[in-house]
Amino acid sequence: MPRIIDLLVIGTGITGLNAARQGLRLGLSTATTEALFFGGLVTSVTRLEREMQGSGSNIAAEIMMEVADLGATNVSATATSIGRDA
Protein backbone atom coordinates (compact mmCIF):
# COMPACT_ATOMS: atom_id res chain seq x y z
CA MET A 1 0.00 0.00 0.00
CA PRO A 2 1.44 3.41 -0.95
CA ARG A 3 2.45 5.69 1.89
CA ILE A 4 0.57 8.98 1.97
CA ILE A 5 2.63 12.03 2.88
CA ASP A 6 1.49 15.55 3.75
CA LEU A 7 4.29 17.47 2.05
CA LEU A 8 6.55 16.61 -0.89
CA VAL A 9 9.43 19.01 -1.39
CA ILE A 10 10.83 18.87 -4.92
CA GLY A 11 14.45 19.98 -4.85
CA THR A 12 16.74 20.07 -1.85
CA GLY A 13 18.50 23.34 -2.44
CA ILE A 14 18.64 25.63 0.56
CA THR A 15 15.03 26.74 0.03
CA GLY A 16 13.73 23.19 -0.34
CA LEU A 17 15.63 22.05 2.75
CA ASN A 18 14.16 24.93 4.75
CA ALA A 19 10.65 24.12 3.46
CA ALA A 20 11.09 20.48 4.51
CA ARG A 21 12.40 21.53 7.92
CA GLN A 22 9.45 23.88 8.48
CA GLY A 23 6.94 21.21 7.40
CA LEU A 24 8.47 18.72 9.80
CA ARG A 25 8.42 21.25 12.64
CA LEU A 26 4.70 21.74 11.95
CA GLY A 27 4.14 18.00 12.30
CA LEU A 28 3.65 17.20 8.61
CA SER A 29 4.90 13.89 7.24
CA THR A 30 7.47 15.15 4.76
CA ALA A 31 9.39 13.68 1.84
CA THR A 32 12.05 15.25 -0.36
CA THR A 33 13.24 14.42 -3.84
CA GLU A 34 16.29 15.73 -5.67
CA ALA A 35 17.47 15.08 -9.22
CA LEU A 36 21.10 16.10 -8.72
CA PHE A 37 22.59 16.78 -5.28
CA PHE A 38 21.35 18.27 -2.02
CA GLY A 39 22.20 21.85 -1.16
CA GLY A 40 21.93 23.25 -4.66
CA LEU A 41 23.96 26.30 -5.63
CA VAL A 42 24.75 27.30 -2.03
CA THR A 43 27.25 24.42 -1.85
CA SER A 44 29.58 26.35 -4.17
CA VAL A 45 29.72 29.34 -1.78
CA THR A 46 32.91 29.31 0.27
CA ARG A 47 31.89 31.86 2.90
CA LEU A 48 28.55 33.16 4.17
CA GLU A 49 28.04 35.91 6.71
CA ARG A 50 25.22 37.45 8.77
CA GLU A 51 22.43 35.04 9.83
CA MET A 52 24.11 32.03 8.23
CA GLN A 53 27.85 31.81 8.73
CA GLY A 54 30.29 29.33 7.26
CA SER A 55 30.62 27.62 3.91
CA GLY A 56 27.54 26.88 1.85
CA SER A 57 28.23 23.16 1.79
CA ASN A 58 28.55 23.01 5.59
CA ILE A 59 25.30 24.90 6.10
CA ALA A 60 23.46 22.72 3.57
CA ALA A 61 24.83 19.57 5.23
CA GLU A 62 23.73 20.78 8.67
CA ILE A 63 20.18 21.49 7.47
CA MET A 64 20.04 18.18 5.56
CA MET A 65 21.06 16.29 8.73
CA GLU A 66 18.45 18.18 10.76
CA VAL A 67 15.76 17.36 8.18
CA ALA A 68 16.76 13.68 8.29
CA ASP A 69 16.81 13.68 12.11
CA LEU A 70 13.32 15.23 12.15
CA GLY A 71 12.08 12.27 10.10
CA ALA A 72 11.95 13.32 6.45
CA THR A 73 11.87 10.57 3.87
CA ASN A 74 14.01 10.86 0.75
CA VAL A 75 12.16 9.66 -2.34
CA SER A 76 14.43 8.36 -5.07
CA ALA A 77 12.44 9.67 -8.04
CA THR A 78 12.36 12.44 -10.58
CA ALA A 79 9.35 14.73 -10.72
CA THR A 80 8.12 15.09 -14.31
CA SER A 81 4.81 16.83 -13.64
CA ILE A 82 2.55 18.05 -10.90
CA GLY A 83 -1.17 17.41 -10.98
CA ARG A 84 -4.23 17.19 -8.82
CA ASP A 85 -6.23 14.02 -8.31
CA ALA A 86 -9.80 14.44 -9.49
Please, could you describe this protein's structure?
With 86 residues, the protein is an alpha/beta fold. The protein has a single domain (7-74), classed as FAD/NAD(P)-binding domain (3-Layer(bba) Sandwich). The protein is 30% helix and 12% strand. It has a 3-stranded parallel sheet with strand order 1-2-3, with helices on one face. α2 links the parallel β2 (30-33) and β3. α1 packs parallel to α2. The protein is globular and about 45 Å long. The relative contact order is 0.23. The model has no long low-confidence stretch (mean pLDDT 81).
Question: What does the secondary structure layout of this molecule look like, with pairings?
Answer:
Blueprint: E1 7-10, H1 14-25, E2 30-33, H2 56-69, E3 73-74
Parallel strand pairs: 1-2, 2-3
Helix pairs in contact: 1-2
